[in-house]
Design goal:
Shape: elongated
Radius of gyration: 49 Å
Distance between the termini: 120 Å
Number of helices: 10
Structural class: alpha+beta
Largest sheet: 5 strands, mixed
Strand content: 15-25%
Number of strands: 18
Length: 422
């Protein structure tokens, strides 16, 4: 007789749940979504890719690395100083300030390219040493200084906005919300359920949050065609206020992709469970999303997450050391479909009539008439007493009548011989 229950350890027996075939292990397949939540997808031959990045330059600068951002920002300042320094040097050469030091210059103390560059730097950064300054001799130089001031304001505003947006990026906040390393399958209220954990590692809480889950299956054909199929999983209580770590549960019922999947089928399955948690931060009001994925080897059959919430004297205590810990439980190895079928075939316990709590069915008119007739024949003893008394009276009357008739007959018999004698 095959075993009905099995328990799997998350440490030493995890390798037994890897994807296997009759010929051995399958080739390693890459994840569709990595554990940290990034998608393992590379786009190639995108039409006008550089134009798309330049068109949405703000989003591009937010998504690139910090070191690249620092280089771009430094170059934006240095190139702007150099550009306007060249313009001031050209104005000085055209006005003759470099050849004839005795003439009234357009810019005081700008007699070389180095001096023009330093004047551009001091003007844009508003240092103002008081050594170099603009005069009223050249209108062109005044216009250039005005343009440089306006452009420097735009550069400062753009850089400050990029830095603030990058520091407040949703990706950074999403790193403080994490999922358990594995998912588990166990029994809940008589049903097989798939569960995983999500928790917020910061003290500030979310305004609202919604959990989603779906299975991703990729099929590669001999022609090279790849089909990716998505199937949604119905989650019990998907709307969550993530104050403490929460276990998200999916009941394996008809319509679920796992409904006909047993432990053996799970070991051979080729899919990826992608879960996400979308929420709004109460500090910034920004919408965030945290994602991760589980392969069949990371779905532990016969495991239950350990309790990590304890009640103290003044507050609840959450032990995040138990966030990823599981314990063994007894779970049938068969699929949810077969398990529910066996539960339906199992006879339900019958109660004796004395201990039965079920209400009696409504009687039919025929049965009620028969019951009334039966109760009529089983009247209380008072009725029987009345019948007995009536019977005694009737018997006394009958006995009196019989005695009277006998006396009359005797009297007639005594009179008959007298007639004969006469």
């Amino acid at each position: 007789m095959p075993k009905q229950y099995a328990s799997v350890s998350p440490s030493d027996d995890t390798a037994a749940l890897s994807v296997k075939t009759e010929n051995g292990h399958q080739d390693k397949k890459y994840r569709y979504v990595r554990k940290e939540g990034s998608c393992n997808v590379v786009f190639r031959h995108v039409p006008e890719a550089w134009l798309l990045f330049v068109t949405d330059i703000f989003t591009t600068l937010i998504e690139i690395r910090w070191r690249v951002v620092f280089i771009i920002f430094a170059l934006s300042y240095i190139l702007s100083w150099l550009f306007f320094g060249i313009l001031f040097w050209v104005i000085a050469v055209a006005h003759g300030d470099i050849k004839d030091p005795t003439t009234e210059p357009c810019v005081d103390q700008v007699r070389s390219f180095t001096a023009a560059f330093l004047f551009s730097l001091e003007t844009q950064t508003t240092i103002g040493y008081g050594f170099r300054g603009m005069t009223e001799n050249c209108m062109v130089a005044i216009i250039i200084v005005t343009i440089q001031d306006v452009i420097s304001c735009f550069i400062d505003t753009f850089i400050i906005g990029i830095v603030v947006s990058k520091m407040a990026s949703a990706r950074k906040r999403a790193q403080t919300v994490g999922f358990s390393n594995c998912a588990v399958i166990n029994l809940r209220n008589g049903h097989l359920c798939l569960s995983w954990r999500v928790g917020d590692f910061r003290r500030n809480h979310m305004v609202e949050g919604t959990a989603h889950a779906q299975t991703v299956r990729s099929t590669t054909y001999a022609t090279g065609k790849v089909d990716v199929v998505y199937e949604d999983l119905v989650i019990e209580q998907s709307d969550i206020i993530l104050v403490t770590p929460t276990t998200i549960t999916h009941r394996i019922e008809p319509g679920s992709p796992l409904y006909k999947m047993s432990l053996e089928d799970l070991q051979k399955a080729d899919f990826e469970l992608v879960v996400s948690f979308t929420y709004t931060d109460d500090s910034t009001g920004t919408l965030h999303q945290t994602r991760t994925s589980y392969t069949p080897a990371e779905i532990l059959w016969g495991q239950l997450f350990q309790e990590m919430i304890r009640v103290g004297r003044r507050h609840f205590r959450v032990d995040y050391a138990l966030f990823h810990q599981t314990a063994k439980v007894l779970v049938p190895e068969i699929s949810a479909e077969k398990y529910e079928h066996k539960q339906q075939l199992r006879p339900s316990p019958r109660l004796s009539p004395r201990h039965s709590t079920r209400p009696s069915p409504c009687p039919s008119p025929r049965s009620s008439s028969w019951q009334n007739h039966h109760e009529t024949h089983l009247k209380p003893p008072t009725v029987m007493v009345e019948l007995a008394n009536n019977y005694k009276l009737l018997e006394a009357e009958m006995s009196a009548t019989i005695s009277t008739s006998q006396e009359d007959s005797q009297h007639q018999d005594s009179l008959t011989p007298a007639k004969h004698l006469t």
